[in-house]
Every structure is written in C-alpha cells, then in structure tokens.
Amino acid sequence: MANIMEMAADIVAAHASTTPMSKEELIAELNEVHSALSSLEKGDIVETVEEVEDTPAVSRKKAFGKDKIYCMICGKGFKTLSRHLKTSHEMTASEYRKQFDIPRSQSLASKNYSESRRKMAVERDLAGNLAKARAARTKK
C-alpha cells in the first residue's frame, strides 16, 4: 500500500488536472489532504468545512462570451449553464443569479447559441404556429 504522502499527491494531482491552481493553492491543498489522511489513519474524525467563495472564478465580463458562457463558480465554459448548475453545483439559475448579482435580463446561454436557436425558430415559423394554435383555442 502506498504511503500517505503518495496518496495525498495522487489526490491533489487528480484535482489539479481538472482545476487550474496556483503553486500556493497546490501546496495548501496537499497539506490539507495529507493531514486529513493522517487523521483518518489514526482513527480520528475528520471534520470537513465547506468553503463558500465570495470571489468568482472568472470575472462577469469574461463569463458572458460570444461562443461560451463560463461558470463563475468553477470557471468551466459551456453553451448554456442551466444543466451544469443543477448537476455540478446543485443550484438553480435564480440562486446563481442572486449569488453573483446577475440581472434577469442577462441570458445564461452564449450569444452564438442564443442566436442560432432564434434563427431556427424563425426558419420553422414557431411564432406563427403558436399564434395559429392560440387562435384555434380561442375559437373553441
């Protein structure tokens, strides 16, 4: 079995491979993981403290790009944020907006994605079909 330092290094390396981290953050995380593993080996109870970051991973200006929208929590880029927020961060779009003071008028989808969806709706005449359906419903 690997020693505690090797296990801690493997855990931190796996985390660092998916999350950009500075040298200081790597060292701090390595120390935290090592002390947690040491405590577990001794049979002590390890208390976890969930950190709530006040500073976003990316600035609001960078977060809302033309091709991608970046999550301000983890910094990953997507076409839309809704599904990512639910699955990765277990929060709704309104909670996300409230946390980072994002106005309701700001879309949580990239500009190009929104534009392509708008063009598709115009090509398929979805607004006309909706108007026809409403008119048929009012006649009944």
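[next item in queue]
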Amino acid sequence: MTWDDLRFLLAVCREGTLTGAARTLNVNHSTVFRRVRSIENKLCVQLFERLPNGYAMTEAGETALKAGENIEREFLRLSHELAGKDSRLHGKLKITAPDALVIKLLVPYIASFCETYPEIKMELSIANNYLSLSRREADIAIRATNLPPETTAVPLTFTAKPSD
C-alpha cells in the first residue's frame, strides 16, 4: 500500500460513499471505485460492504481506518514539524537604539522577540549616537526623532502603549 492508497481508504471510510470520497479527494467517482477495488485486490481482503446507500466498513475496514488515522496523524505532525525548517529564522540581528527608549519602552518587546525567535542572537547597541545602517553597523536602528538621518531603510512609526 502507498500513502495515496491510504488517502482513498480514509476518504471512503469517513464519507461512506464513493461520491463523498470523490468530492473530498477532488477526483472522479469512478477513480475512487477503481482504487478501492485495486487496494482490496492487493491486500486480498474486503474492506467495505457495498450497500444500496453507500459503503460500510468491514472489520478489516475498521482496522484500516484506525491504522490509517494513526499514520495520517503522524504524517501531518511530521509535515508540520518539517515545514519551514530550512527557512527558520536564525543568525545575528544588530539593533541600535537610544538608552531612554530601550529602558522605558523596548525591554518587554525585546524579551518577547528573544523568546519567540531563540535562534536569533540579538546584539543590542544602546547608545545615543547614530550607528549607520548603510555601513552595516546595525541591521535595525530605532531613532528618537521624527527626522532620522538618511538611510536605505524604510522609516517606521512606533507608538508605545502605556504600561499598566
């Protein structure tokens, strides 16, 4: 059996009809019929009783459903775990900000960021003098002014919420 075979079996088990399974799988009714027959032939077992109002699982079908759901759950867990592994954010991030801003406003945001992205090593330069973004002295520069020096970066407006 293949994962694709298992998808077909699960759809028929869950939907109870070939038409419902076909709709779920976005395939033709006859495709589901052929696949179910092929799977049963490969396994030498009848998985469904053909009834006038749909397909009912046999004991073997119920066994296939339980095992299939476990495999599906594990497959989805693995897919979720692996998704974006190579694109996980990591590396060094250099930030410069004036001391008053860091102390009064940014500390909770920095702590939250570090908790959310543990693989990013933040290098914080707390200084009132400006480090240059264009010379890569910093990746992010937080300025306490409405007229920051010219850089290639996009200026953002930051509005701090008063703490409780």
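[queue empty]
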